[in-house]
Write a structure and sequence with these properties.
- This protein has 14 helices and twelve strands.
- It is 45% helix and 17% strand.
- The strands form two sheets. It has a six-stranded mixed sheet with strand order 3-4-5-2-1-6. A six-stranded mixed sheet has the order 8-9-7-10-11-12, with helices on both faces.
- Helix 6 (149-173) packs antiparallel against helix 13.
- By secondary structure, it is of the alpha/beta class.
- It folds into three domains: 7-118, Probable tRNA modification gtpase trme, domain 1 (Gyrase A, domain 2, 2-Layer Sandwich), CATH 3.30.1360.120; 123-205 and 370-414, tRNA modification GTPase MnmE domain 2 (Four Helix Bundle (Hemerythrin (Met), subunit A)); 215-362, Rossmann fold (3-Layer(aba) Sandwich), CATH 3.40.50.
- Guanosine-5'-triphosphate binds at residues 224-230, 272, 324-325, 327-328, 340-342.
- Residues 224-230, 272, 324-325, 327-328, 340-342 line the site of guanosine-5'-triphosphate (GTP).
Length: 433
């Protein structure tokens, strides 16, 4: 897609900073660059230039020109690496605006890259994940998506589907003419089954991919005064707590994200469980139980100086019994871990236990699939392949199901219905990306 307007943005972080990077894209880049920094530098090589506006010197900096189509957006692009002062950047942007450039919207460079076929929807999402990555595991998974690991797989699946559809459709078009074998070759079914298995295998990892992005949810539960808030405060103050900007999402449950050995964990501080006549407290308890059910791990806290609550019985397999306040007295009740939020004793053991859990759940190669969109598209594809297999003798029905399976994959990479996904995605992007 050709855009007539040329966009600009400060693409580096908040000012003041050592260096600020101003990025440009669009048809006016060459002229604007020459107007503010003199002769065009050789493509993709940095040149030191005075930067000015109508004879007035504004700064000096490094200028690099990326002629389209071999650029990030596919258009002519440039970057000005200048001193990161607020006044300096403002003056340069104003000089560029005098050349007819306008400020970019959030994600607009990436949108142009998508529109010009430089990125597909999956790699755009990978880029979004990469910019948002807090933990090492998130970085690896996001980079694999950005590098096209899933795009490549989807292309392979689409190409197998095209071959299969061609086999079926040939039988539809020429079924009266007798020059096409009415029976499908044996290889057809083998190829269909192989395709199904390959998609289903990728789909099986979606849960671990999702957990890497959203974090392993650890509920802290137990009787009132068991020490939940104290433990979460101790964790929040530790040097592995992530300062995450979750503005706009009001939650009645306090959440503390932590990076333990490169894995994201989200700790939830829940209301203490006990029998109560208070409606408000009962509601808190109902939500606490719900959060425990939704959590990946429940830390069940028991203190030597409080009456233990009754452990809800639908949580088997994800309970870790934690004896708290070990600085007071050694626990007598059966437990898996013993710790003190006051002295810090036992916190290392807790981290080690959780790190082991993460390794079992999400260790190894980064998952190819991790978004809800992936799950929906790939399960729809598998369901349609199953439908095709069940109706294999009715070429028309089978062909229709395989067409649907292709459409799911087209949607996944953004060849169909990309706009809605992109609009939502770019809301999370920053200006200049
Ligand atoms: N000695 C000692 N006291 C603790 C420890 N952890 C918590 N406490 C004390 O135990 C009491 C209850 O602790 P909280 O952390 O508020 O317990 P809670 O489970 O969040 O309580 P609710 O929010 O009412 O359910 C407080 O007086 C804390 O100071 C600990 O490790 N050692």
């Amino acid at each position: 897609m050709r855009h007539d307007d040329t966009i600009m943005a400060l693409s580096s972080g908040a000012l003041p900073a050592g260096v600020a990077v101003i990025r440009l894209s669009g048809p006016k880049v060459r002229d604007a660059l020459m107007a503010v920094s003199g002769p065009l530098p050789r493509p993709r090589l940095m040149a030191l230039r005075h930067i000015g506006d109508a004879g007035q010197r504004l700064d000096q900096g490094l200028v690099v020109f990326f002629p389209g189509p071999a650029s990030f957006t596919g258009e002519d692009c440039a970057e000005l690496h200048v001193h990161g002062s607020r006044a300096g950047v403002k003056a340069i942007l104003s000089a560029l605006s005098g050349q007819g450039l306008r400020l970019a919207e959030a994600g607009e460079f990436t949108r142009r890259a998508f529109e010009n076929g430089k990125l597909d929807l999956l790699t755009v999402e990978g880029l979004g994940d990469l910019l948002a990555a807090d933990t090492e595991r998130q970085r690896q998974q996001a980079l694999a998506r950005y590098d096209g690991a899933l795009s490549l797989k989807v292309d392979q699946w689409r190409s197998v589907l095209l071959d299969l559809r061609a086999e079926l459709e040939a039988r539809l078009d020429f079924s009266d003419e007798g020059d096409v074998d009415a029976e499908l070759p044996n290889s057809f079914l083998a190829s269909l089954i192989g395709l199904r298995r390959s998609i289903a295998d990728a789909l099986a990892a979606v849960e671990s991919g999702r957990v890497v992005r959203e974090g392993i949810r650890v509920a802290l539960a137990g009787a009132p005064n068991a020490g939940k808030s104290s433990l979460i405060n101790a964790l929040a103050k530790s040097d592995i707590a992530i300062v995450s900007d979750e503005a706009g999402t009001t939650r009645d449950v306090r959440e503390v994200p932590l990076d333990i050995d490169g894995n994201l964990f989200v700790f939830l501080d829940l209301a203490g469980l006990r029998n109560t006549d208070s409606k408000a407290e009962a509601e808190g308890i109902r939500r606490a139980k719900q959060a425990m059910e939704g959590a990946d791990i429940v830390l069940w806290l028991m203190a030597p100086d409080t009456q233990d609550a009754t452990l809800p019985d639908n949580l088997t397999g994800k309970i870790i019994r934690v004896a708290t306040k070990s600085d007071l007295t050694a626990a007598t009740a059966p437990h898996d871990l013993q710790l003190s939020a006051v002295s810090g004793e036992g916190l290392d053991m807790l981290f080690a236990t959780l790190a082991r859990y993460a390794e079992d759940l999400i260790g190894g190669e980064p998952a190819l699939v991790s978004h809800e969109r992936d799950r929906m598209a790939l399960s729809a594809a598998v369901a349609n392949i199953d439908r095709a297999e069940a109706t294999l003798k009715q070429f028309e029905l089978a062909a229709e199901s395989l067409r649907e399976a292709s459409a799911s994959l087209e949607r996944l990479i953004g060849r169909l219905d990309a706009e809605r996904v992109l609009d939502r995605l770019f809301l999370q992007f920053c200006i200049g990306k």
